[in-house]
Amino acid sequence: MTNDDGTIDIWGGLYKFTENVASSEKPVRPFYVPSELPLTIASVLYRWNQSVLPNDCSIAVCPCDIESVTKMWHHTWGPSHVEQPTRLQQLYEALDKDLWEKGFRWQTISGRSLTDSELSLVHSSEFLNDFLAIEQGKDLSHTNALLNFTYANPDFSFCSVGPYITSACRVAAGSVLALTKLAISGRIQHGFALVRPAGHHSQSDKSGTFCGLNNVAIACIAALSWGAKKVLVVDLDVHRSVGTEEIFSRLEKENRITVERLLLIDIYATFGGSHKAQGPTILVPLMDEKEIGDQQYFDAFERVVLPKAKEFNPDLVLVSAGFDAAKGDAEGFQVTPRGYQELTMQLRLLGSPMIYVLEGGYDLSSLCSSAVACMNSLLSPIPR
Ligand SMILES: [Zn+2]
């Protein structure tokens, strides 16, 4: 839609470009004028933050401050991309309508920005240098570390993500750290980090598809430095978490972690490659299954995930919570909200503090119903 002043509205009015990027020419560098955070999110956050909570409230959602959510809201890969800011809007609204309005309550935790030294816990110095250059608004079309920002958004120039992506990345990872610290200190039992961009495809020295910083990997290493003895990552995203796997493998080779202290269990049905795991990783491929739905995930839990998790006996569980195996997502798999609810309850029965961290899932309806189901499970009493 062309505005009266000649600028173009795209992506439902979320962004305005001050140059015409719709021509057949190679995309030019756009100048974003990000829109304000939608009033619906702001009013949800306001009500949550104003509420008096019961004393035994041990579940938390992060981020719940306007500044952090706005930073993630401002980042877009460009129009028509499936990983869109509206994912967050729909998630906050769904949690409010389907749980908060029905009387469920959770602590509202403010997000924070990741520091450079925290970023360097898992990412290389080259990665950090490129990240800082983007943050300063430099044109880095030639860089390798963050080239996937372009790959994830092939219709636009590298610069179309602009410096906004870096503040979104810092808040995404910082919010996971905020919840992790509360879990380690015993101040919460479970948490859900509603963050974007995702992280589990990002490796030590390069970003992965639709991903920024490896939020979960950073939280794992931070947790170990804060006193956690054993951290388990369960990756439920339908895509293989090659980033987390590579990072853990490298850290193990560098003797910075041991398999006794950090374990990744990755259930996946696509982006397979060789099923040979690197480092402290147990792969649970579902590629050969005829149909992939609740039963296949339940079987994988019974066969591998739960026995290995119990044997490992973690004092913190981080879940890479991708919902792209959900029924309704374009990947075409069939996991239902009921399935995600049950899987979450199975993980709760391990008895460890647990943080859910949003990864993939791009159909807005199935994304929301799946995340609500997991949150419902985190909030519900454990059946006796
Ligand atoms: Zn995915």
UniProtKB/TrEMBL annotation:
> Which terms in the Gene Ontology molecular function aspect does this entry carry?
histone deacetylase activity, hydrolytic mechanism
Q: Which GO terms describe its biological process?
A: epigenetic regulation of gene expression
InterPro entries registered for this protein in UniProt = HDACs (IPR000286), His_deacetylse_dom (IPR023801), His_deacetylse_dom_sf (IPR037138), Ureohydrolase_dom_sf (IPR023696)
- Assigned GO CC terms: histone deacetylase complex
Q: What is its EC number?
A: 3.5.1.98
> What are the Histone deacetylase domain coordinates in residue numbering?
81-377
Instruction: Give the primary localization class.
Output: nucleus
Is Nucleus a UniProt keyword of this protein?
Answer: yes
Quote the subcellular location field of this record.
Nucleus
Q: Which Gene3D superfamilies match?
A: Histone deacetylase domain
Tell me which UniProt keywords the record has, alphabetically: Chromatin regulator, Hydrolase, Nucleus, Repressor, Transcription, Transcription regulation
Q: Does the keyword ATP-binding apply?
A: no
- Give the similarity note: Belongs to the histone deacetylase family. HD type 2 subfamily.
Could you identify this protein by its name?
Answer: histone deacetylase
Q: Which source organism?
A: Didymodactylos carnosus
